From TrEMBL:
Residues 40-131 form the Dihydroprymidine dehydrogenase domain. Residues 146-456 form the FAD/NAD(P)-binding domain. Pathway: Amino-acid biosynthesis. This is Glutamate synthase subunit beta. It holds the Pfam family Pyr_redox_2. It comes from the Bacteria. The lineage of its organism: Bacteria, Bacillati, Actinomycetota, Actinomycetes, Kitasatosporales. Keywords: Amino-acid biosynthesis, Glutamate biosynthesis, Oxidoreductase.
Amino acid sequence: MADPKGFLTTGREVAKTRPVEERVRDWNEVYVPGSLLPIISKQAGRCMDCGIPFCHNGCPLGNLIPEWNDYAYREDWTAASERLHATNNFPEFTGRLCPAPCESACVLGINQPPVTIKNVEVTIIDKAWDNGDVTPQPPERLSGKTVAVIGSGPAGLAAAQQLTRAGHTVAVYERADRIGGLLRYGIPEFKMEKRHINRRIEQMRAEGTKFRTEVEIGRDIDAAKLRKRYDAVVIAAGATTSRDLKVPGRELNGVHFAMEYLPLANKVQEGDLTVSPITAEGKHVVVIGGGDTGADCVGTAHRQGAKSVTQLEIMGKPGDERNPNQPWPTFPMLYKVTSAHEEGGERLYSVSTTHFEGDEEGNVQWLHLVEVEFKDGRPEPKPGTERKIPAQLVTLAMGFTGTDQENGLVSQFGLELDARGNIARDADFATNVPGVYVAGDAGRGQSLIVWAIAEGRSAARGVDRYLAGASALPAPVKPTDRALTV
C-alpha cells in the first residue's frame, strides 16, 4: 500500500489549466506543463489499495491501478511504467482523452472525491518517455504470417502493435493522409498534441509494423483481393457515419458535420492549410450535441475567433451529484464543465432544432429551436417556447450511427451486420468471413478510446489463435462486455 493514511490526510488535486485568455490564442494543450509532477506522488498515495479494487472493473483494459499508484507514490517511475504498459499500449492517449470510468468506480469515491487516476496515468507515461523507458519491442522471431489492419485509430493501432510483437508481419491501411484515425483529425490539438501519436508511430515502425496511408479499402483496393493477399484481416475502421439532422434548411451553406469541421482545423495545425475552409472567425456559432465532440467544436470555435458560441442539447441538464438510479460504481451522468466550456459560450438544455433559416445567397443565418420535455421516452415540444438564435456556422455533433458502408468494405467482404448495423462478430472477434476480424467502434458502435484499445488487444488474441493455434496475448474484454452503467 502507498500511504496508509493518504486518503485521510490528502485532498484531491487535479492538473492545473493555463489561463483562458492565454490558451485560446494558441492550440497547445490546455494544461500547465509540469504542474502535475510536484503533487502527483501524494495524489497517488490517496489510493487505498482496496481488497477488491473496483477501478479494475471500471476500466475495460483492467489496468493495474493500485499497483502503479504505489510505484508513483514511491516515485519509481520505471516500475510504474512497466505496470502501466502491461495492460495499455497507449496510456498517453487514454490519460489525456478518456473520461476515466475508473475514477467513477474508485472505492474512495463512495463518500469522498476519488483518486486522480487519470492524472497519475498521464504523469507516469510522460515520465517514461522523458526517462527513455519507452522503447521498441520487436519480436524475437517472425511467424511467417501476414495481417492487414484496416484503420489506424486506437483499436487498429493496438491490434497492430500486439500482433507485430507476437511475430506476425502487420500492415496498417489508413484512408487519410496520416496515421491516427480520429485521434489525428477528430481530436483537437488543445486536447492532445499530435506529437504523442507521432512518437508511438515511430516506436511501432521500429518494431516492424508497416503503414499504408491514403489507401481506402473498398475504393482503392477491393476488400476481397485484400483478404487473398493476407493470412488474416482486422477491421478497425470505426463508426464514422455521422448522425444527421433532417430538418428544413439542412442544405444551407454553413451547416456541417463535426467531422467535416474538426479535421480541417487539425490540418491547419499540421501545416497543410493556412486557413480552414470552414472557420468560425467572426461568426455566431451553434454546436448541436452536448457530448465530447460538441465540446471539441466549442473549443475550436473559440480559437478561431467566433463572435459567439452556443451549444444545444436535447436532454435536460445533468445534476452535480449522482442520481439514486446511477449508484456507485456505475459511470454517472453528471454536469461536466470541460476546458472548452471554461473558455466561454452558452449551453442550452432541453431544446430541439426545428429548422434553419438562410439569406438570399443560401447561407445559414438563424437556427429555430423549441424547448422540449420527455414523455414516454420521447421529446415533445412545449407550446409557446419557439425562438430563434443567430447561427452563421452550425456543427452537427450528435454522434455516429455505424461504420461506413458506402465505400464497399462491408459488401465486398460479404460481412454480416448485427441488429444495430455494426459488423457482427463472435466471441473471438471473428466475423462471418474466415480470417476476418473486427475491433473497436466498427463492431461495438460508437464508444470510448479505452474500449477501442481493449477491443484491439482482444481481437489481436483472436487473430493470433487463428494463425498460430494458440495465443499468449491478453484479451481484456469480450465482444459482449459493456461499461458499468445503468
